[in-house]
Design a protein that fits this description.
alpha+beta; 2 domains; 5-stranded antiparallel beta sheet; 8 helices
């Protein structure tokens, strides 16, 4: 009997040792799992702040956030006729390796400024990966340029819209309205001469001849879009033309500033071919001439411009109730 009891005790002891060994193994496995989880969390918690620090440093000292904002805004001034931006309307937000930029664009109709578009841009480092726009106007300027669908065209070109119908629609508007009109000329003119000739309205934007507009095609065979600059003195704080002594020279300087970022400019603008290098060279060699402008003013004053022999085509833009203060 004693030998049997000893055998049972030995078996129980062996079982306890096995159980204790199993528990120790499980405990070790659980400890390793928690250690791995905590180590991973620690690394992640270190990586995220590091990524944010890198992002802020990149947009502060690499490709600066202000540089990207300048490229976007200046592109719109030279490619979107009769528009302006407000500095206080710019909103920036940052996430890992990216920056969001949103702002409002305005259009002058009469003497007042009205919302034209809302822009929402997303940059991953210096690459513009998303460009969303919401239009607040009734008439939208052509998005994809062709030789004939522009609202302002070189004398060599015809237009897709029936200009006679545009004049009839304009004439049929109430006298108590102010309008925006896109005028194309029969030749090339100095902008200052146009402003003197049309002194009863505001000439807000001028399309500048850059040697490509005869066929609307660059030397590489790409269809190009009109570019130009605001004519009126712009006191908007954000405007690059604020207190400018020469809008022409400011325009040329802007083209040179945008050229290194032309891929971004093309994505920001509704016009998809700018060919800035070729056009800068032409302007520097030949100066500034315009083949069309945007004007705004009372309906009756715009109608009277039809009597000018220089005016070849007219495309009616936005129409608002009377706000003229002259």
């Amino acid at each position: 009997m004693d030998a049997y009891e000893k055998l049972l005790k030995k078996a129980k002891s062996s079982g306890q040792q096995v159980n204790n060994g199993t528990k120790n193994v499980k405990r070790a496995i659980n400890f390793s799992k928690w250690k791995l989880i905590l180590t991973t969390l620690s690394i992640v918690l270190m990586i995220i702040p590091t990524c944010y620090i890198f992002t802020f440093m990149y947009y502060a000292f690499g490709t600066k956030s202000t540089t990207l904002m300048d490229v976007a805004s200046k592109t719109l001034y030279i490619t979107e006729p009769n528009t302006t931006l407000e500095e206080m309307e710019f909103d920036m937000d940052f996430s890992i390796f990216s920056m969001g930029l949103s702002f409002e664009q305005y259009k002058q109709i009469g003497v007042d400024f009205y919302p034209a578009k809302s822009y929402d841009l997303t940059f991953v480092l210096n690459d513009l990966v998303k460009s969303d726009t919401i239009s607040h106007v009734e008439k939208i300027y052509p998005k994809n340029p062709t030789e004939t669908n522009q609202w302002i065209v070189h004398p060599n070109h015809t237009v897709e819209f029936p200009t006679e119908v545009e004049w009839r629609v304009l004439s049929g508007l109430p006298d108590e309205t102010v309008v925006e009109a896109y005028l194309s000329f029969d030749d090339l003119y100095n902008v200052k001469d146009i402003v003197k000739e049309m002194n009863s309205v505001d000439v807000t934007w001028a399309a500048i001849y850059t040697g490509t507009e005869d066929d609307m095609v660059s030397a590489d065979g790409d269809i190009v879009s009109p570019i130009g600059y605001p004519v009126q003195r712009d006191q908007t704080y954000w405007s690059p033309f604020r207190d400018s002594t020469s809008h022409e020279e400011t325009f040329l300087m802007m083209l040179k500033e945008i050229e290194p970022y032309e891929d971004i400019a093309v994505k920001v603008s509704s016009h998809k071919n700018l060919e800035l290098e070729e056009r800068i060279q032409y302007i520097e060699a030949n100066g500034f001439k315009t083949y069309g402008v945007v004007v705004t003013g009372p309906k009756a004053e715009i109608v009277s411009l039809r009597d000018l022999t220089m005016v070849r085509h007219m495309k009616l833009g936005e129409v608002k109730l009377w706000n003229w203060e002259r």
